[in-house]
Amino acid sequence: MYKKTLIYCAGAVALCMAGVAWRPARIDTDKGLKDYYKKYFPIGVAVTPRELKSEEGKLIVKEFNSITAENAMKMAPLHPEENRYYWNDADSIMAFAQRNHIKVRGHNLCWHAQAPAWMFKDSAGNDVSKEVLLKRLKDHITTVASRYKGKIYAWDVVNEAIADDTTFLRKSKWSQITGQDFIAKAFEYAHAADPKAALFYNDYNTEQPAKREKIYKLLKGLLDAGVPINGVGLQAHWSVNNPSREELEKSIQMFSSLGLQIQFTELDISVYSGRQGGQLINGQQQQVKSEFTPEMEQQQLEKYKMVFEVFRKYRKNITGVTFWNVSDRYTWLNGRGRKNYPLLFNADLQPKKAYWEVVNF
Known about the structure:
Elements: H1 12-17, H2 33-36, E1 43-47, H3 49-52, H4 55-63, E2 66-69, H5 75-78, H6 88-99, E3 103-111, H7 130-147, E4 152-159, H8 173-178, H9 181-193, E5 198-203, H10 209-224, E6 231-234, E7 237-239, H11 245-256, E8 261-270, H12 294-313, E9 318-323, H13 353-359
Parallel strand pairs: 1-2, 1-9, 2-3, 3-4, 4-5, 5-6, 6-8, 7-8, 8-9
Helix pairs in contact: 7-9, 12-13
């Protein structure tokens, strides 16, 4: 698995059993992911304000040169009431980034989930008109994008608008009230507020042929209509058996043929099989403890190795890769019914074997 030129640490097995982080010899431990990929693309991570104030903050500064707010810039947390914004968490992330000379990627300006209920209702509790909803969307995007103008290099403008079933648009209040118009309008509002920011459409299961075709249709339609869209975010909530190299490369080729930037925006690789995007695991609510087995470790290592080989191959098309959470200590996948280990750093913030495969090229 490893290159023959590597010299392994003596007693590697004993060290692992003793809880000491394993790594190949001759690896420069002063370098982070961002340094290994300096000539390729930025390496980012989704963060919370709490992590920035803890020991994870040091790891973030060492390893990454782009950060994304996991939740703090989404509509409901940021704009809980029509006439009230809550800026504290988002501003603290911005301040951390500026202190440490890290770029910020904005996530997100329009989404069916984590949208406040007031956005769609009038004073009597009825659905607002299309005109009212688009005005509210414009006010929100203008306020948020203007506040961080020049400080955020890219925005996920519209998130997950394509349906998972055989229909085209996801059924949501956005599509119910405005049809498809909210998508183009969101990009127009964002561009007007911050003309220099790169604007992305972001979605999951983009390596699934049927959904990929629908996303391509949406993007091509927006481009043909002159909508100011610069890229597509492929979320990359993957697993040890998904996606295949073939489907991953097809997605990159298809979307980049439109002249759009490609960014992998929410990368994690679940140690469980199946598709992770947009699914619950058996509807379980209780956390089920599970062990990170050698088999899981090997399968995950091989998948990370493959996807980064593909990323490097298409470096001319890819302008960013962002991990969704810092380490196995905390990951959104743990809230889906069982303990997961989807990232490159373990719960002790030490690099896993998969990390060394990612940087060993």
